[in-house]
C-alpha cells in the first residue's frame, strides 16, 4: 500500500476547490458591495451601513457553512483518522511482544556456511565488526513496511553487546564519521547508493589495532528494498541513482546488479581476508544476494542470512554468535551464484506498449499531472518459479546445478547434527502419511525441519510438472543431544495434482508413480518412497472437487494467457532460449485492446441489466447490525438490515474506506479502524504503533507454523489495545524474481510455504477478533509500473498452482475475512474489478465470506467504484474524493452496492468490536469542536444581527425626526 500522507493532503486541497471558489465569490461580492454602496450611490447612512453590515454577516454565514461542509465532506475521513483517540500498548504487552519478536528471529536467522565450526564464537568476547551497514542495519522495508520510532529498536551492535560481546569502537567511529544516515529510498525517491568506507581509508594503525583487539572479524553487508521500486538489475542504467564511494573507481560496471558486491565491498573483503583468518559474513537483507565470491575468500568461514529484524530481532543475532541460541532457520528462497541465471530476468521491469495511444489517460497524483499508458509483464516461465525451475532444469540437463545454485531452497545449518528416518509410507483414503523420526546426533540442543517433497510422473509434452515440489513440512521442538522426536507427516493426494488448462480444464492427478521424498532441502534427498496412483483422477465435478473447493475449478483466466511462448519441460526444455527471451513484441493485440478498460472507456450504463429490480432502501425495520453477529451470511435477517441502508449510507461506506470503514448510525455500525503494515501496526495519523516483528521473509525462514500463528495472535492482541479492527496484511505475493522491491513483505518463492505462514498469521489474528487483509490479490509480484495499468500475462496453470496458492490456503486454512486487491491487471482486466478472480475463484470456488478492498485508491486513470462494485470489489481504500464514489443510481448499481455493503458489514459485525453487543460510540473530537464552533458562530451572528438592527434603527430615528420637524 502507498505511503499516502502527502498525496492525501494535496488531493483534499483539490477537493476543497469548489468550496473555496464559493468563499472567494462571496468575499469578492461583499468587498464590491462595500465599495459600491457609498455616499454617492446611497445617501441614506442608515441604509448604507445596514447593507454593509448585512453583506459581511452573509459572508460570516457562508464561511461557516462552507467550513462545516468541508469538514463533514472531503475532510471528514482524514479528520476522523487524525483526531482519533490514541490507544497505546500496555507495558506488559510491549515487553511480551519484544520477547516474542526476538524469539521468532532466533529461528529466522539462517546459517548458510560454517566451515571449521567457526561459529559459535568461543575464546573471546571481543569482536571487530566491519561494514558500514553494521551502524545502519535493515529492520524493515519502505512504504507500508516502514517502521515507527515510537519504541526502542535493537541494532546489530546493541544485540552483540546484549549477548556479552565488546565491539571495536574505532571501527564503529570510522563508519559513523563516514555517514550517519542511510540514503533515501522511499515511495517517490530511490537513491541506491551503498555507503561503504573505501579500503584505503582504513589506516594501518586502525587495522593493527583491530588485530590486537580480536582475531575474530564479523562483516556486515546490507541490501534494502521497499514499496514502489524494484531493485536495479543494471546499476549503470540511466534511471538508477548511485554515488560511488571513491573517485578512483566505479563501484559497479555496466550490467552488474545491486545483488552483487560493489567494488568497495570487494576491496573491504580483500583487506579483511588479508588480516583475519576467522571471518563471519552477516548478510542483512530480504533479496537473495549473489554468492559467487565465497570461494575467493576461504577466510570467510561462516555466513549468516539475517532478514530485516524488526524491533528486537538483532538481540537474537548476538545470542546466536555467542552460542546461547542454536540457529534453525532454513532458506525461503534459492540463492544463486549468478542472479542473471533466473528465467525471469528478461521479463521483469518496464515494458510500455507502443500502440496504446487511444488508451492513454490523464492522471493527477501528488500534485502533478501526467499521462499514463498501459504497460505489461510476461510470466513466461509458467510454473517453473524458484527452486522448481532449478531442480527440474538440472534433472533435465539444462543447467549444471552446482555451477548455478549457491544455497538451495529449504537449506540451513545448525551447531548440531540431526538424523531423519522415514517410516513406511501409507496411501489410503486419498491421504499420504508416514512418520519421520528426528534424532539429535550432535552435542548441542537444537531444532530441525522435516521437509517432504514429491516428484510426479511426467509425460514429455504433457501437463507441465516440476520434478521437485514441496508437499509438507514440520519443525521439531528443541531436541537435546541424543533426544528424538517422531513427526507425523500427512497430506491429501490432491496436493500432488496439476492443473491442466488445455484438455481437462481442471485439476488432474495423473496415474503413475509419485516419488515422495524426505529431504534436507530442495536438492538433497535423505530417503524416498514411491506412491502409486492407479487411476487418473480429474477434479471436474461438484462432488469431486480439488482441495475442498465449493465448486469445481475450471478455466477462468484464458484471457490472461496472451500470445507469448511459455517455458516448457518438453524435450529437456528445448524452448528455453525462445521462452525466456525479452518480449518479441511491444504491441497490445486487437483482442486485448477490445477487452481493456480504464476510467476513460468504462461507462456503467453500458453494463446495466434491464431486468434488475431496484432494491429497497431507507426502510425502518429497526434491525441493528449487532443482531447479525454470528448469523450466517445468507440469514434472511440480513435483507431486513440492508433494506434500511440509503444510497448515501452505502456510498460513503464503500467510497471512503481508507484506514477503516465509516459509521452508519441508523443500523448501529460504528467506525472501524484498519492499519498497515506487514510487521507492525502503524497509525500514521496518531503516531501510535505496535511492536514490529521480523519481516515476512524472516517468518518464512523459521519454517515454524506455530511461530506464525503466535505472531498473528500477538498482533491481534496489540490491535485490540490500540483499538484497531483490521490489519492490512499479510502480503503473500510470490518472490518471482530476486529483484522485487517488496520481497521483504512477502514470504517466499514457494506457494505452499507462503500459504502455511499466511494462514497461520491470519488465523492467529482472527482468534483475537481482528480481520486481516490478505494481499495483494493477485499477481502483484513486481513494483515497477504497478500503478501504470500493468497488464500481467500468465497462463492458467501458473496462476492457480503458483500465484493463487497462498491466497487459497489463507481462505481455506486461515479463515481470511478480508482481501486487499492488487494494482495490476490480470490480462486485460484490472484485478480490483475482475469478476473471475473476485467472484468465481475467491467466493464461489474457495467459499470466501468477507469484503475486498482496493490498494490505496488514487484513481490512477483506471480505478473507479462503479466498475469495481459490479465485479466483486467492495470498498475503496480512499480518504478523499476522486473516482471512488459510485455515480450510477441504476438498479444494477444499487444491487451491487447492496452486495458490497453486505460483505463489509458481515466482516465488521464479526470483529472484536461487536463481541459484547453494539459498541458504545463517542462523538469524534473534531465534530465536537465543529458543533461548538457552529454554536459560537450562531450566537455571534444573532448578537451581531441584533447590533446591526439596533444601529440601523438608531441611525434612522434622527433622520425621521428631521423630516418631521421640516413638516
- Shape descriptor reads globular
| Radius of gyration, CA atoms, in whole angstroms | 32 Å
**Helical stretch tally:** 26
Task: Summarize the main sheet.
Answer: 6 strands, mixed
Structural class: alpha/beta
Strand content: 15-25%
Task: Describe this entry's structure for a reader.
- With 967 residues, this protein is an alpha/beta fold.
- Among the domains are: 4-72 and 926-953; 109-325, Glycoside hydrolase family 3 C-terminal domain (Rossmann fold), CATH 3.40.50.1700; 413-553, Immunoglobulins (Immunoglobulin-like, Sandwich), CATH 2.60.40.
- It is 32% helix and 16% strand.
- It has a six-stranded mixed β-sheet, sandwiched between helices.
- The model has no long low-confidence stretch (mean pLDDT 94).
How would you sum up this structure in a few lines?
Belongs to the glycosyl hydrolase 3 family. Helices cover 32% and strands 16% of the residues.
What layout of secondary structure does this protein have?
Layout: H1 5-15, H2 17-36, H3 45-72, H4 76-82, H5 91-108, E1 110-114, E2 126-130, H6 156-162, E3 166-167, H7 169-178, H8 204-213, E4 216-222, H9 263-275, E5 278-284, E6 300-306, H10 313-322, E7 335-336, E8 361-365, E9 368-372, E10 375-378, H11 387-395, H12 401-404, E11 405-407, E12 418-422, E13 426-428, E14 431-440, E15 449-455, E16 469-475, E17 484-492, E18 498-500, E19 506-509, E20 512-519, E21 525-533, E22 537-539, H13 570-573, H14 576-579, H15 590-595, H16 637-643, H17 647-655, E23 674-675, H18 696-702, H19 705-721, E24 726-727, H20 751-766, E25 771-777, E26 790-793, H21 796-803, H22 805-812, E27 818-821, E28 825-826, E29 829-830, H23 835-845, E30 851-856, H24 865-869, E31 875-877, H25 891-909, H26 925-966
Parallel strand pairs: 2-3, 2-4, 4-5, 5-6, 10-26, 23-24, 24-25, 25-27, 26-28, 27-30, 30-31
Antiparallel strand pairs: 1-6, 7-11, 8-9, 12-14, 13-14, 14-17, 15-16, 15-20, 18-19, 19-22, 20-21, 28-29
